[in-house]
């Protein structure tokens, strides 16, 4: 069981020894599940949930970033989005930034609605709207509707990323969530790596049926995403509920496809219930609970951590090809696309290595995060200050590798800290606040740096130097913030936790329940 407490090993051993006692559980009368049985249940949930989240994230990430490709697609025939709409560099970055402004504003309300409604329905709603708005990009005809569509896309997609993290915490205990978040986070990296290659195919469709290449691209991605949204409604499991207890059906359930339960047998559901008691009796929350979460100081260091890593991640995603071209102006656009993809492959490899480690050594999450930031700083220094083009490009590969463990680690650390202190509403609100406010980092890097910083955008060996240095500075601030939080948690939170060796089984169980937000809800 995951815990951020001091002596967590001793605590976990004490909890485990409870579970290994022979005979039925005194509280439930149920035959106690072996570790292997519990493991099997999580494997079943994984098969059901992770590929579905992966697919939805891949499609939404592709739709969000396709606009960048559309700006230059088929430019040799004058059919790119920027040519047809006569967009200036400033207008392009304004549109990109407007999207993130909505992310900042609407992440939080979206996640709160999600925790009040059925999470899987809300996730499907997000995906459906992203599909429809994505397809509408094909109809762009003026600068004002480019701005408007980016705003609307930001509004409808807000809540997707923190919502997925929240959704995962409904099915898995904190010590198992990091790896899962990491798995579906790889979808964004695969998307970043492949969409530009796929766009080459769409460019070949330029002129078919009177549509240009980017219009085909938006329509097809939009259609596939909308179909995926409908499938998700049927496929993604609803929030778990106590075995034997009937679900309170909301009015909209009448219109939804009938679901196949994720866990088919009553026994599996009971064992999962025992493992994840928090989610079955999600205590109703009100404004006061929400206020407590929002006033919790722990939000701020986590937000600063996220600000740095998401800002740099999105900055590299939006301007990576420009940064590569600045290191070697002779590269063609095809070569640029080919060199861009390995950055995300490095990111993906790092996620797959680091996130299981982060779960295994969950007390070390801030150090894994800081390691990732340090690697990015080293990479950015190479890209900025080295003179050989390939060394500078190697620096970007290091940035990709360093990015891998950072974003998912902040999300999982946030849910760990807030689930323990505030229960389910804590996870929903805190992950949305950290992601939402942290995306001010994306607004900063897309709007104010690179093409948005006129004096830094002058071709030559020093091009983008100042922007890169700002990125190094915000990463250093993220590291500092994670260390400050780790230290404060050590002195403030961990001091109040009783040594598990001195607790009896009932007290351990009660504490586990409290950490999951169940204070006083069990009869
Ligand atoms: O809002 C989200 O979807 C979560 C953060 C996205 C960060 C992007 S995904 C591609 C690139 N790789 C990273 O590690 N960060 C950025």
UniProtKB/TrEMBL annotation:
For biological process, the GO terms are: biotin import across plasma membrane
Pfam families for this protein: MFS_1
Query: GO molecular function of the protein, one example?
Result: solute:proton symporter activity
Ranges where the record places region Disordered: 1-29, 503-523
Classification via Gene3D superfamilies? MFS general substrate transporter like domains
Name the source organism: Drechslerella dactyloides
Domain named Major facilitator superfamily (MFS) profile: which ranges?
49-490
Transmembrane segment boundaries: 49-71, 91-110, 122-140, 146-169, 181-202, 214-236, 297-316, 336-355, 367-387, 393-413, 425-449, 469-489
Task: Spell out the GO cellular component terms annotated for this protein, sorted alphabetically and separated by semicolons.
Answer: plasma membrane
The way this protein sits in the membrane is described as: Multi-pass membrane protein
Q: What is this protein called?
A: Vitamin H transporter
Which controlled-vocabulary keywords does the entry list?
A: Membrane, Transmembrane, Transmembrane helix, Transport
Start-end of Basic and acidic residues biased regions: 10-21, 506-523
Chief location bin: membrane
Give the highest taxon in the source lineage.
Answer: Eukaryota
Indicate where this protein resides in the cell. Answer: Membrane
Coiled coil region boundaries? none
């Amino acid at each position: 069981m995951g815990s951020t407490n001091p002596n967590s090993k001793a605590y976990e051993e004490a909890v485990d020894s409870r579970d290994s006692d022979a005979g039925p559980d005194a509280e439930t009368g149920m035959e106690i599940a072996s570790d292997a049985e519990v493991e099997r249940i999580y494997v079943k949930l994984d098969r059901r949930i992770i590929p579905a989240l992966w697919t939805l994230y891949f499609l939404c990430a592709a739709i969000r970033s396709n606009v960048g490709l559309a700006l230059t697609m088929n430019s040799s025939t004058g059919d790119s989005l920027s040519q047809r709409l006569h967009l200036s560099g400033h207008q392009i970055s304004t549109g990109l930034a407007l999207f993130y402004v909505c992310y900042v504003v609407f992440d939080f309300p979206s996640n709160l609605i999600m925790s009040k409604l059925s999470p899987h329905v809300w996730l499907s709603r997000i995906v459906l709207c992203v599909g429809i708005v994505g397809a509408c990009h094909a109809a762009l005809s003026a600068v004002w509707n480019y701005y408007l569509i980016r705003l609307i896309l930001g509004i409808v997609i807000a809540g997707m990323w923190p919502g997925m993290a929240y959704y995962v915490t409904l099915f898995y205990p904190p010590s198992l969530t990091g790896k899962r978040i990491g798995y579906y986070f790889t979808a964004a990296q695969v998307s970043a790596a492949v969409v530009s290659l796929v766009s080459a195919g769409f460019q070949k469709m330029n002129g078919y049926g009177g549509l240009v290449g980017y219009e085909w691209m938006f329509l097809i991605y939009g259609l596939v995403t909308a179909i995926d949204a409908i499938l998700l409604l049927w496929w993604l499991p609803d929030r778990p509920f106590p075995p034997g207890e009937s679900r309170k059906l909301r009015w909209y359930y009448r219109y939804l496809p009938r679901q196949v339960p994720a866990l088919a047998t009553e026994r599996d559901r009971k064992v999962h219930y025992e493992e994840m008691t928090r989610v079955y009796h999600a205590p109703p929350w009100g404004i006061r609970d929400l206020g407590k979460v929002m006033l919790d100081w722990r939000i701020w260091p986590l937000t600063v951590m996220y600000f740095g890593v998401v800002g740099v991640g999105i900055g590299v995603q939006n301007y990576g090809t420009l940064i590569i071209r600045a290191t070697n102006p002779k590269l063609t656009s095809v070569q640029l696309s080919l060199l861009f993809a390995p950055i995300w492959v490095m990111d993906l490899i790092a996620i797959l290595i680091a996130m299981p480690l982060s779960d295994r050594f969950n007390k070390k999450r801030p150090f894994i995060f800081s390691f990732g930031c340090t690697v990015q700083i080293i990479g950015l220094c190479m890209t900025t200050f080295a003179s050989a083009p390939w060394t500078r490009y190697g620096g970007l590969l290091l940035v990709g590798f360093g990015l891998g463990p950072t974003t998912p680690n902040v999300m999982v650390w946030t849910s760990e800290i807030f689930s323990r202190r505030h229960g389910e509403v804590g996870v929903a609100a805190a992950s949305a606040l950290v992601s939402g406010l942290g995306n001010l980092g994306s607004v900063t890097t897309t709007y104010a740096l690179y093409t948005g910083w006129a004096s830094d955008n002058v071709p030559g060996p020093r091009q983008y130097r100042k922007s890169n240095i700002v990125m190094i500075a915000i990463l250093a601030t993220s590291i500092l913030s994670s260390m400050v939080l780790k230290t404060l948690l050590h002195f403030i939170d961990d001091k109040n936790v009783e040594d598990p060796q001195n607790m009896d089984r009932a007290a351990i169980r009660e504490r586990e329940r409290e950490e999951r937000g169940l204070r006083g809800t069990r009869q």
